[in-house]
Amino acid sequence: MRILLILFLGALLGAAEPDMLIEGLKEQAINYAQSQADATGGNYTFLVVLPPKLPTLRKGKVSFQASHLSKSDLMGRFFVAFRILVDGAPAGICRVDLEGRWSGKLIRTLAALPRKAVPDATQVEEVPFEGTPPPGALSSLPEGFRMRVPVGIGRTLTRADLEPIPLISAGDRVRVELNWGPIAISSEAIARSTGAKGERIRLEMPSTKKMIFASVIAPGEARADWMGGRP
């Protein structure tokens, strides 16, 4: 009878150990996802939607090391990948499937906005949201952008709806700063392409008709850094 009791207790303890590992692994996955979410705006909540399955492991001290997320977007279904270590040595891999929900404020239109319109604060409103927002949904109205496509009233704005406002258009006269090491000179050029701030455009030097590339830095202004005689 005593032998049966010892065997029974041993079986219980053996079953409890994997359960404790799995519960700890679930908590570790949620904490890892939360740490990745802390750098973003809004608040996230995570739930385990599929318990992890562990391979057969040799005896020893088992630990888990978070490897990566299955996607950078922490909303909807994704998983956290782990390396399994036994006594500090690699012993396999596993994953914990999570579902992420986001709560915060999104930008919704109060008026219809035509293509190329520059939205302002009177044409949009912040609305509370919880769940999985549309891909690229905006939580604030960025400066220096205009509508890429027309949208109607009540539309949740996304990055795909907007495009940078060009600061230089093809045909504009541009003052270009040419930098070559410690040497910097300014010259006039003609834009042969259109660009927003930070974008590279083609410029024609009127005196030589030579084409160069330069980065837009302000309306009517660009800069070219020359390396080995070429911008």
Write down the secondary-structure element order. HEEEEEEEEEEEE
Q: Cα-atom Rg, whole angstroms?
A: 29 Å
Shape: elongated
Distance between the termini: 88 Å
Q: Look at the structure and give the mean pLDDT.
A: 86
Helix content: 10-25%
Q: How would a crystallographer describe the biggest sheet?
A: 5 strands, antiparallel
Total helix count?
1
Strands, total number:
12
Low-confidence stretches: 1-16
Number of domains: 3
Structural class: alpha+beta
| Percent of residues in beta strands | 35-45%
Describe, in plain words, how this protein is organized in 3D.
- The protein is of the alpha+beta class.
- It has three domains: 100 residues, no CATH class; 61 residues, Type Iii Antifreeze Protein Isoform Hplc 12 (Alpha-Beta Complex); 53 residues, Roll (SH3 type barrels).
- The chain is built from one helix and twelve strands, in the order αββββββββββββ.
- The strands form three sheets. Strands 1, 2, 3, 4 and 5 form a five-stranded antiparallel beta sheet that branches. A five-stranded mixed beta barrel has the order 8-9-10-11-12. It has a two-stranded antiparallel sheet with strand order 6-7.
- The radius of gyration is 29 Å and the shape is elongated.
- The termini are far apart.
- The N terminus is likely disordered.
Summary of the model, kept short:
The chain is 16% helix and 42% strand.
Using brief descriptors, characterize the structure shown.
Type Iii Antifreeze Protein Isoform Hplc 12, 231 residues, disordered N terminus, SH3 type barrels, 3 domains, elongated, 12 strands, 1 helix, alpha+beta, 5-stranded antiparallel sheet
